[in-house]
Amino acid sequence: MTPIIIAIDGYSSTGKGTFAVEIARRLGILYLDSGALYRTVTLYALQNGHIEWNGEIHDRRLQEDIFLGKIDISVMPKSDGTMRIFLGDEDVSGRVREMEVARNVSAIATLPFVRNFVDEQLHRLGAKGCVMDGRDIGTAVFPNADLKIFMTADAQIRAQRRVKQMEEAGGRPSFEEILKNVQERDYIDSHRAMNPLRQAEDAIVLDNSHMTVEEQMVWLDGILRERFNLSVL
Ligand code: DC
Fold first, then answer.
1. Using 50, 70 and 90 to split pLDDT, how confident is the model at 193?
2. How many Cβ atoms from other residues are within 10 Å of residue 61's Cβ?
3. Which atom in ligand 1 lies closest to the alpha carbon of residue 122?
4. What is the distance in A from the centroid of ligand 1 to the CA of 156?
């Protein structure tokens, strides 16, 4: 396996996951979705009554559970480049995508003890080489990553993409609600005190508002060839 670490950061629903999975599959390296770890902690908190119906978080109780090692997260790579994520023995890959998790995850991801916990897990899982996507991978988790990409796209286009994804999964989402969720998450992600979403100084920006995945691969291929003598085409 190529021991390369590629950090992909950016706004929610910019297609970081799709892009990262495709890179992992083509280079034969591990893909790690850091957002899925925050979502799994959020699911745990919901399942254990640490989040009230109005969004209030009992952070002391959550912190205690983390401290006691009660949140057992593991991942399993799939041959198509994606990963499955487990909470204890349960495969929660589907459940962490549900709207209730999406509504609460940004607030959970602002808690410093949650960020420390997730960072530890990400280091443990990705140290030997990976493509990791998230918000603070190139700035905080792997500041020495071999390659850093910062992804952005128009909010309306991102909301449309998410609506399409949810429709394909059998849901009937409202565009307005999704757009609001995308904008709220942008705000929370960029304004939290600890490790906010921001572009690393040495990151390369990719605005994919009007690009297909294949066009993004061609773009990346130029960089990989020049810097690492690797190809994704
Ligand atoms: O990428 P996503 O939508 O699955 O991310 C879920 C949430 O987790 C999102 O609100 C931001 C947060 N997150 C974060 O704060 N830091 C990361 N490295 C990844 C995700």
1. confident
2. 13
3. 18
4. 19
Strand partners, 91: 86
How far is residue 233's CA from residue 217's CA, in Å, rounded to a whole number? 7
Contacts of 217 by beta carbon, 8 Å cutoff, 6+ apart: 22, 23, 26, 232, 233
Ligand 1 midpoint to CA 229 (Å): 31
Q: Cα 65–66–68 angle (5° rounding)? A: 65
31 C-alpha vs ligand 1 centroid, how far in Å?
15
- Measured by CA distance, the residue closest to atom 18 of ligand 1 is 134
Q: What pLDDT score was predicted for residue 22?
A: 96
pTM: 0.88
Which pLDDT belongs to residue 57? 96
Amino acid identity of residue 27, one-letter, is: L
For residue 50, pLDDT beyond 90: yes
Checking 182-186 for CB contacts under 8 A at 24+ apart, the result is: 182/11, 182/12, 182/13, 182/155, 182/158, 183/155, 184/106, 185/12, 185/106, 186/11, 186/12, 186/155
Share of the chain above pLDDT 70, in %: 99
pLDDT band at 185 (very low <50, low <70, confident <90, very high): confident
Q: Which residues line ligand 1 (CB under 6 A)?
A: 12, 34-35, 38-39, 105-106, 109, 134-137, 185, 189
Q: Which residue has the tokens 């549900």?
A: 98
Separation of CA 38 and ligand 1 centre (Å): 6
Which residues are CB-neighbours of 62 under 8 A, at least 6 positions away? Answer: 41, 45, 50, 108, 111, 113, 114
